[in-house]
From TrEMBL:
It comes from Rosenbergiella nectarea. This is Muramoyltetrapeptide carboxypeptidase. Residues 7-128 form the LD-carboxypeptidase N-terminal domain. Keywords: Carboxypeptidase, Hydrolase, Protease, Serine protease. One of its GO terms (biological process) is proteolysis.
Amino acid sequence: MSTSRTIRLIAPSGYCQHQSAAERALERLSGDHRVENTSVIQRRSQRFAGTDAERLKDINELVTLTELPDIVLAVRGGYGMSRLLPDIDYPGLHARLSQQPALLCGHSDFTALQLALLAKTGLVTFSGPMLAGNFGAETLSAFTDTHFWSLLSQPEYSLNWEDNHDLSGHWQGQLWGGNLAMICSLVGTPWLPKISQGILVIEDINESPFRVERMLLQLHHAGILAQQKAIITGSFTHGEPTAYDDGYQLDTVWEYLQQKTGVPFINNLDFGHNADTVTLPIGAQATLIAQQKQRQLQLTDYPYLQP
């Protein structure tokens, strides 16, 4: 990436226990970009990256900064965002970021903020790499790095991948979702966007197939899944079946929910907690095309870095 950008770090969730990874990320990013607000990396209060007030300030001060950064990057996920949702300055963020977009990027626990912003303001944010876990990996994934900068630098972007199953179809709608556990945590709250005829994308970590099914059934029973045109599944890392499952696995879950809801499940997108992950604009417009085992996701209507 030749153009130098300003990247502002925020730490609204868990304490960054992998300090060496964060330092490695700073070295990588600082070579081409200006990284600011780095003091949040070491900040700690119990398991959190600072007190609730400190972590809330990371978000709300975007309203009053003299100059907005190009990118707002979460240090890590974990837990903590749910505590902050009632006190976020949604009107202020909407007013400021609508005039001058700063691209907010993160995943996992960050999903709660992304969906809350979408519900309350309509702002599009980016589910993608974070400082420590991705940019601070011992070996930086060229796949993740390339997709991040390429999508953020273009007004339109297409992803191509291959699925295991033959399926043909064409669906258009608003792209939304992220971490499945965080989506479910927002059901019944004001911070879950009410999206009909959308394309829901999901991923998670440390969740066994039966837990994934239980969460999807919650969304089904809440009437959410039936309102979607399609569901895209990303990576479900470290949730392998056990001998007790006796052949019950994620494919079983996808087939069961597809039969239950009538909504097609499009699988195997590299998205989530794996080293290789695409970046997705949450709230953008999407066209999903399936042709036998080939899949394409065309993305439009999201903020991007100006040349």
